[in-house]
Amino acid sequence: MLKVLALPQHYSQQWRDYYQLTKPKVVALLVLTAWVGMMLAQPGLPKLGLMVAATLGIGLLSAAAAAMNHIVDQRIDAQMARTYNRPVARGRLSTAQAVKFSVLLAGAGFLLLFIAVNPLTAWLTLASLFGYAVVYTMFLKRATPQNIVIGGLAGAMPPLLGWTAMTAEVHAHALLLVMIIFTWTPPHFWALAIHRRDDYAKVNMPMLPVTHGIEFTKSAIFLYTLVLFLVCLLPYLVGMTGAVYLVGSTVLNLGFIWYAWQLKFNAKPETAMATFKFSIWHLMLLFLVLLLDHYWFISAL
């Protein structure tokens, strides 16, 4: 009787481990930005079926990329406080199980996008997976302190993927959304890297705080938030957005600059992590403001 009761618990733990492989919180943010890209691609509401297929396909391929990251980084994950309890690093899932799972997710996502959405979106999303799981995780991450700057392009792609899913074309406005996330990524990640600097040093990972020091990284974060403020003005300056976005973007970016200023000139032990957490809210709210502005702007025409 005890063995019968123990079986569901084992499977429940295993499913939780597979779920953890997908980095659900990260994927949720990526899918949100892709979804906003879909909504901004046209004046009215997108076709529901097309939007659902695109969201699922992009989400599945993003989850596959996350699982591949667990596979490639399992050795260093086991040595870092932030990641030591990940399923592959702890051996709760084998490398073979993780590989099969990631390939299944990637194949399902690619086929769904190719058949139900359009080939352009399918290939661009697959290229993003390759950029993150192979180019960034396997090479850049271990080769240069500019790893997150260059590799951040893969994580910046979802708004473009959402846009192409609705229109089957690469539009300049979608590229502006990519630019925003591309510029946002370094200060977002470097704040976490400052907090976890000793972890990265222990595994000889050339993150900026390890190679150039914490003070240099703080300066880089502050400068990037200033650049991000300017980049976020571009959608308004080219007529893509209206006043709602301008106000919302300005408030959010001033908040990010304030956190970066505190980190540089008035840091406390918790400031780096607080900056990292704020940056997540910053991007999420920024894209929701884009969405609000889009329909506000359309209704005012």
How are the SSEs placed, and which strands pair?
Layout (H helix, E strand, L loop, with lengths): L1 H20 L2 H17 L7 H25 L1 H4 L9 H4 L4 H23 L1 H25 L3 H9 L2 H10 L4 H24 L1 H6 L5 H4 L2 H24 L5 H23 L5 H30 L1
Report what the structure shows:
By secondary structure, the chain is an all-alpha fold. It has 15 helices and no strands. The protein has helices at residues 2-21, 24-40, 48-72, 74-77, 87-90, 95-117, 119-143, 147-155, 158-167, 172-195, 197-202, 208-211, 214-237, 243-265, 271-300. α2 packs antiparallel against α3, α3 runs parallel beside α7 and α7 packs antiparallel against α9. The model is unreliable at 1-7 (pLDDT under 50).
Judging from the principal axes of the Cα atoms, what is the shape? globular
Q: If you average the pLDDT, what whole number results?
A: 92
Low-confidence stretches: 1-7
Question: Could you give the count of β-strands?
Answer: 0
Distance between the termini: 68 Å
Number of helices: 15
The largest pleated sheet is described as: none
Structural category:
mainly alpha
Which band does the percent of strand residues land in?
Answer: under 5%
Bin the helical content.
Answer: over 70%
Rg result: 20 Å
Write the H/E string, N to C. HHHHHHHHHHHHHHH
Summary of the model, kept short:
The protein is an all-alpha fold. About 80% of the residues lie in helices and about 0% in strands.
Notable features of this structure?
301 residues; 0% strand; single chain; 82% helix; mainly alpha
